[in-house]
């Protein structure tokens, strides 16, 4: 009798377990269906935010609209008709802890648009960011001699002028440039002028904030001379302390960073949705890299190397390409000359 009661009790317990399991499964599917519906609505909002793009760009979304992995897969194959024949598609997603994720999207340029008439393509393809093409000035004799320039106004040498002509020719075949900015030092300004002349005769705007770092008593000396001629300034120059000024009126790395990034931000804000060129110096460009990628160390910045930044309307800095010197196929480039690395001057 007791055994029968025990069997009935076990049977009822199993039935209860099966019932509870069925309820849990039903609840799971209801939640899954609800989540799917909500995700479709979110994806609809994401699709709606994809706007006309030129070659590549970013779309920033609130965290609650961020799609799960399977939706990202769907977005990767999504195409949307936009103005003209350009079609954006998702390339990658960048997660940011505690901040909005960024979707990177790109478009194809129609075959009917050739390199020679690409200046007819609107440069204001994405109003949410400014594309800034940063170019280091052409070679000078002091670069070739490994002499510290700083704020000393040194002219381009013959190789530097050839390099300027080549980078100008390259940029003239790319997307339309709205403005050209330059450091007010001649080696940068003359490089910028070559670019402006080749790209439709744009007026070069001088921006003193884009100057090279002031290197105090070291200016005019070679590295080999500097250690003996001005040991205090030399030690300050090589110091890892970013707040260290250089004797003789020289700047600290912190001052250079503040000056150069502030100028860059002002240019970006003024030309939102446009493509502009900035011609500057090795030390200054390193500061811009630090602002965009604080934990990374840039490769050496060669003469007339091209670096492309995207500055968003929420002050998000993205480096799209770095150190491109593919245009220097005729002159070569100065890889051993002073400048463009940590000891840039």
From TrEMBL:
PANTHER family: BROAD-SPECIFICITY PHOSPHATASE YOR283W-RELATED (PTHR48100), PHOSPHOGLYCERATE MUTASE-LIKE PROTEIN 4 (PTHR48100:SF34). The active site is at 137 (tele-phosphohistidine intermediate), 212 (proton donor/acceptor). GO terms for cellular component: cytosol. It comes from the Eukaryota. One of its GO terms (molecular function) is phosphatase activity. Substrate binds at residues 136-143, 187. This is Phosphoglycerate mutase-like protein 4. The lineage of its organism: Eukaryota, Viridiplantae, Streptophyta, Embryophyta, Tracheophyta. Belongs to the phosphoglycerate mutase family. Residues 1-20 are annotated as: Disordered.
